[in-house]
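Propose amino acids for all 273 sites.
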């Protein structure tokens, strides 16, 4: 259905510039008559097209239809889980879908948006919009769905592509057990991953004078800043992993790769064991 109300200001804000209204997609898997041992949340970035907004992209815009690669992986996994029917797990698949376009209503740099948990974000760059939509989705699976463990997939940063190239996704998490689970699943499925650092000192670069935080850090360490930003929207006591699939989600020779769908499917299946 549509975005639910004024509290979802971030999703609204990112979608103001497009004619297509934002949609908040929530699919729940629960095996009828099964024994749910664990409730998990899976969030996918769903930017159906990303112009960059008023901080307009100066290159690669023709590829920006792939900016919903995280959502595609998550929804593909939801379909696979529905078909294979694993027992012991309740899974919530969530996508906050919108477009990042330009018109007279679109967000401009310096605007302040309010997330569904009340935190305020100063928008320093309208092309760092994906993390904004993900924030509301993460709050939803954390607080409303009460998921015990959460992973999120997104084509989020060029910085991750610079670090790991186009064959490997980056994983940011404070939870060593979750990191190990994802590493094992990565090896089994062939969706290659590498754990990346969460440098707490870099949080200083996300501070704002007029809001709780900004949506952009300094020039260096952009992929880490994104991970630190997203951590602010999940309970610190819960295992959470941010997975940046910007590189492997697209292959210039064949197009979209579906990267991450196998990873998510296998990870969800294992949660019920």
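Proposal:
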């Amino acid at each position: 259905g549509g975005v639910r109300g004024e509290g979802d200001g971030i999703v609204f804000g990112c979608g103001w510039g497009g004619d297509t209204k934002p949609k908040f997609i929530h699919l729940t898997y629960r095996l009828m008559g099964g024994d749910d041992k664990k409730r998990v949340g899976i969030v996918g970035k769903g930017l159906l097209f990303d112009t960059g907004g008023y901080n307009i992209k100066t290159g690669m815009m023709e590829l920006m239809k792939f900016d919903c690669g995280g959502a595609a992986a998550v929804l593909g996994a939801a379909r696979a889980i529905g078909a294979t029917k694993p027992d012991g797990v309740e899974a919530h698949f969530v996508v906050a879908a919108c477009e990042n376009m330009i018109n007279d209503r679109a967000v401009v740099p310096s605007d302040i948006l309010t997330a569904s948990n009340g935190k305020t974000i100063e928008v320093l760059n309208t092309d760092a919009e994906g993390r904004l939509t993900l924030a509301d989705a993460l709050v939803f699976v954390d607080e409303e769905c009460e998921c015990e463990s959460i992973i999120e997939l997104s084509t989020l940063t060029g910085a991750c592509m610079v670090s790991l190239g186009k064959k490997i996704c980056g994983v940011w998490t404070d939870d060593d057990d979750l990191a190990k689970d994802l590493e094992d699943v990565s090896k089994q499925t062939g969706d290659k991953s590498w754990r990346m650092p969460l440098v707490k000192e870099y949080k200083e670069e996300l501070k704002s004078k007029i809001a709780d935080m900004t949506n952009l850090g300094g020039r260096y360490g952009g992929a880490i800043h994104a991970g630190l930003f997203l951590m602010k929207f999940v309970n610190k006591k819960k295992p959470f992993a941010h997975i940046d699939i910007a590189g492997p989600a697209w292959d210039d020779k064949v197009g979209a790769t579906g990267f991450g769908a196998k990873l998510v499917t296998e990870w969800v299946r294992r949660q019920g064991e």
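Helices lie at 9-15, 69-84, 130-144, 158-164, 176-189, 222-231, 261-271. The longest helix spans residues 69-84.
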